[in-house]
């Protein structure tokens, strides 16, 4: 068994310990379960509109300029190439996106929203925002701001430090 180290630097705050750690009090577990439940609720909102939540998020990412290519979309949505390619095939078939070879680099395929894609984003955004607000209704404005701040802090730590011991 290999020794797990602190990764980059010394761990000064030991929030977990072997005696009290349980899978259900892990931040990772809580985030995963929260994500799964939020995804299930989101899918229920989008299903009657004939589009999945993940498909709508891809349209939203394109609409917001967070992605111009399938690779960009993979990174922005934390999905693998195969899943994004299949999703883009479906979205293109439905007339929500187009693919075109880049004028600057013919190896690159650029994505663009169609008017129908923009319409899907605009039509469903209010429903999604309302659902999110309903979900967060039990949080004060300060709690919501703190939760968002802490999640961004965790994300930054994961991006800069990674998970201790996971480097190899």
UniProtKB/TrEMBL annotation:
Q: Does the keyword DNA repair apply?
A: no
Instruction: Tell me which UniProt keywords the record has, alphabetically.
Output: DNA-binding, Transcription, Transcription regulation
Q: What InterPro entries does the database record attribute to this sequence?
A: HTH_MarR-typ, MarR/SlyA-like, Tscrpt_reg_MarR-type_CS, WH-like_DNA-bd_sf, WH_DNA-bd_sf
Q: Which Pfam families match?
A: MarR (PF01047)
HTH marR-type domain residues: 24-156
Q: Which GO terms describe its biological process?
A: response to stress
Q: Which GO terms describe its molecular function?
A: DNA binding; DNA-binding transcription factor activity
Task: Tell me the PANTHER family matching this sequence.
Answer: HTH-TYPE TRANSCRIPTIONAL REPRESSOR YETL, TRANSCRIPTIONAL REGULATOR, MARR FAMILY
- Full protein name: MarR family transcriptional regulator
């Amino acid at each position: 068994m290999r020794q797990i180290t602190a990764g980059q630097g010394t761990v000064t705050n030991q929030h977990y310990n072997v005696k009290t750690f349980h899978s259900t009090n892990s931040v990772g577990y809580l985030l995963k379960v929260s994500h799964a439940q939020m995804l299930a609720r989101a899918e229920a909102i989008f299903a009657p509109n004939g589009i999945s939540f993940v498909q709508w998020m891809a349209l939203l990412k394109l609409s917001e300029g967070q992605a111009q290519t399938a690779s960009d979309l993979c990174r922005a949505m934390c999905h693998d190439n195969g899943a994004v390619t299949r999703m883009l095939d479906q979205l293109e078939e439905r007339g929500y996106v187009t693919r075109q070879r880049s004028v600057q680099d013919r190896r690159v395929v650029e994505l663009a929203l169609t008017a129908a894609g923009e319409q899907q984003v605009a039509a469903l955004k209010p429903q999604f925002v309302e659902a999110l607000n309903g979900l967060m209704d039990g949080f004060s404005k300060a709690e919501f701001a703190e939760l968002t701040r802490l999640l961004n802090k965790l994300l930054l730590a994961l991006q800069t430090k990674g998970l201790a011991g996971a480097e190899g």
